[in-house]
Fold these 2 entries.
Entry 1:
Amino acid sequence: MSWINKGTTGLILKLSPLMLPYLVLFCGGVFLTVCQSAGIFTPLPHAGRALDAYGLILSDPSFFASFGFSLGVALISAAGSVIAGTFLAYRVWQLPAKLANAALVYKIPLILPHISVAFVVLIFWSQSGILASLAHQLGLIQAMHQFPNVLYSGWGLGMILAYTLKGTPFAMLLVMALLVRFDVRQIQTAAMLGASGLRIFFTIVMPRLAPALHSSFIILFLYSFGAFDIPFVLSESRPGMLSIHVYNLYFKHDLARRPEAMAILTIMFCFAVIFIIAYTKIVTRLENTVRKL
Amino acid sequence: MKHFSGISHITTLIILVLLFALPAGILVMVSLAPEWRYPEIWPAQFSFKGIWFLVENKRVILSSLAASFGFSLLTVLATLLMCLAPASVFARTCFIGKPLLEGLLLTPALVPPMTFAMGLHFVFIKLSVADTVSGVVLTLAMFSYPYMFRALVAGFQTMGDTYRTCAKNLGAGSAAIFWQVELPLLMPAVIAGGNVVFLVAFSEYFLVFLMGGGNVASFTGLLMPLLSSSNRSLAAVLTLIFLLLPIVLFVIMDLSLMRMYRKKGMV
């Protein structure tokens, strides 16, 4: 009898529609990115040694500036989205049935593409935008330049606003899916026993929502860390997001610099994988300690 | 509960409207008032220039809209074909390494899609798959399928094994079981997953630009240069179409699902 029995063959056959594209396109794609970062399969024959591209990148302070900047924008926007999304979802869940339908407006930014959300931020926050006009009408500013330069402050505030606007409804959606199954009587009991609203939220509701909070944080954080669309509309010149850095190296410089672009992508990929593993490990450990109580 | 009075509910709604509906309302105004400038808080005059632009350029707009719509639907179809059989395996059988494999299969939605797409790009050019619709669909399907996969696994789990066993006992073959029993019951999950995949594909700019290389028209590709142009009303009009089209599609899907269920007597 061979080590592959009939059941295993059937299993592999049934999984193959997904496993084949996964191995060929996803794993293959990542493999090719890593290869090209080492100068293999590049459009131009690579003259130097395999790890030259990494040496160039890691000796460039602007790479670390970009990396830190991307990390900061992603962290603030993901944390902001999850906090705002959880709070709003909790409030929407408590709405009486009559008003609950009106709350569906939260889905609007979910449908809008990222570039449109960036456009909305542009309309609202630019120095000639809606909020500047409002400030002028209220007598807070007399001229355009007095309105804070939010979009070009060098802190990535425009991108953070756009990612948060897009991410909050996403977190709401995931949190709401868990809240639907939540037993109201738990809250009522706690309230009868004299727990305050805050206490109820943090000790009863929050632990139940934890899975949705963690998955929305991971998804939003890694998306903002590596995505291109919003930075392309809203980015400031320096320090740019990593994705813009890669785009410039890939499309705007000559082919000899292709390995550098690929090396940045490889570093981004490794960071994403390490982040996912570390985050899930930490969460499981934390949850285990909580359960012991 | 006494500490959540009517006023606080109204406050919640006002916050939601200010955050999420006001932008859409402002977009409507921007599209109707091209000359709306600082420091006017309300446009001095409205005009239909933006709408006229739509009419004048309807060929370009409609063709890029149709292209986006087409490759997004193809992406939904591709993810469905990829995920159906594996999702039933994941929902019904236990095997060694299943949690690990599930985790691995979800990574394409998490890691930046650039990291594998740009590696593939060079090979796609060599194989002349780049600059074609199939190249775009393959790339989009590759990072959006986890949403379809999760939805289908959940769908198979809710459905359970009883329908299948019952149909088998009544003598149905595996094809009949799939087409007449399982697929209709699975439709809500397919539509839920399909909606997300459609939105991801429909609103993606960069990957379509990379893999389509200008050959594959897309709505985002049409919108992008207009976002930074001085005439904001054009971009606002197109953004509003972006908002309406998926909503229309989702409503149609929901209604036809209800009709199908009624026809089959499942409601």
Entry 2:
Amino acid sequence: MVSLSRTDLSKLAIFAAIVLTMPIWLAPFGAAYPGLMQKFAIYAIFAIGFNILFGLTGYLSFGHAAFLGVGSYTTVWSFKLLTMDILPAMALAVVVTGIFALVIGYFCLRRTGIYFSILTLAFAQMCYSLAYSVLTPITNGETGLLLAKNDPRVLDALFGASASTDGLPHPTLLGGSISGYTGFYICAVLLIVSFYISQLIFRSPFGLALRGIKSNQTRMSYTGFNTKPYTLAAFVISGMFAGLAGALLSVTDPLAGAERMKWTESGNVVLMTILGGVGTLYGPVVGAWLIKYFENIFSAINTNILHSFLSFLPDGLEQVVVAVLSKFVGEGWHLTLGLLFVLIVVFLPGGLVEGSQRLARWLTGRLKGSGAQPHPHPAE
Amino acid sequence: MATQPNIILHAADVHKNFGGLRALSDIDLQIEEGKTHAIIGPNGAGKSTLLNVIIGRIPPSSGAVVFDGQVLTGKAPHEINQLGISRVFQTPEIFVDLPVLHNVMAPAFARRDGAFRVNMLRSVDSETEIREEAEQLLQDVGLYARRFDTSGALSRGDKRRLELAMCLIQRPRLLLLDEPTAGMSRHDTNTTIDLLKKIKSSGMTKVIIEHDMHVVFSLADKISVLAQGRIIASGLPHQIKEDPRVQEAYLGGSVQ
């Protein structure tokens, strides 16, 4: 392990344990099925990468969905042209997205603040519309890019690995199937690796330079740092994380559609990061899980479930409570999420992670009975 | 006085106009290596503008600034810093969200690793050499006890001393100080003077802009007086004290 202190190692170990035991602790929440847990892991990777840009340098990108999309398309093309194995597909996706991010970042990073955000949004929306129009030969437009039986798959053909005869081929890892829990564990391991990389960056002089840029760009340049390549490096790294997340979306479900590049996806990752805690290690992961949970579980609750849940209440009261609550679940899950977001931004400006740390400090202070002012601790 | 002094910085024939306002005209300033050169003058005389031109924050309308044989005009701020020039600003420019210790360590990385290096495999805390150097400097400026505090929580005077430490850790060849003791108590001012005197013995060249005559006359080897964008006098401290033009323009007729 490169340069992780003991506390960092234990953080990594705890994180790995939490991720790998997801099938156990998510069961009571009704979310312990591979399809959803994969999403948890994938969007956590997306948010971790986004946090390296937004959390460390303070540059708020509103166009990260473009990288998610590019990663997805690259992966499906790799499946179609090269091989059904996921390793080359993911490697290609990360590299192609990195190059793509380099180009977009080069232009967008010429501006800061709101202008940077608007530029990234414009680029992403451009990619989104291009995917529907000019680029249909590559993206297959509204239908989305799908696998076909007669795809060339040069490498597979070369090694004579054309196995399944019935139906479409499935992605494989070194010849083995990746359906079900295997798929989840692949995503989980990659999530842990992503977390580790983000830990390395947070601890390193490189990370310190990125934080310096967020804190005071003037001082950075008068201190001898050339801030442009630093921000560009952060942009490319976070783009590569998004590319990996996009690749995993296509690995677990081999198709790619332009809707992944939509601005709502870019907005989602911003929400995830802010909800969990900008610039913290765990924050983006917590935020991603929370939003994906709401999107998939909360949105599935309907009035029948509410009725059975609240059947212990007297009849008239039950009707009223269900009528009120039903506005917040099912279709209305956006309302709940929106309220939650407002509450967190207003009352816990550091997000859930910092908020819980503050709460813990307040509680320990209470228990000790000391009136000492708790020292504000630098974000992890 | 036979040996020719080594000129480390030369601002030659520098003019700066802001629209119709002549902020600087006919500036010819030579800074000798290893000396402390004070620039004094009334408010609005163009002292800060001159410093900004030297550091590359604003380009001169005409003329050039030469540092150790290299023309600074047109260079980016980080390039100028990498040549060995650090600056303490009038309003402290520090990393307010970062702990005090990291504030001091970051400039040391710029000194060691250059303007850009993706250094991800080491952790900041395992860079013991730089850490020890930073801690020593924090002890010198009296901020060691607060090294883990977020620097935004420091008082204004402490922020200035922190910024000084951030510049000193770079071991610059030329240190520019824009009113380094403004906002400090008398006691803190004297500590800072002592600290600056200590660095003086290490041979670092300093240019200092200051209002406080106590600071100027305790530190300066040479003084230039700026009034209405022109250097009206340049010389040794006692010469400046006695110069009638200076007394009229700035000192209000009397030094004491």
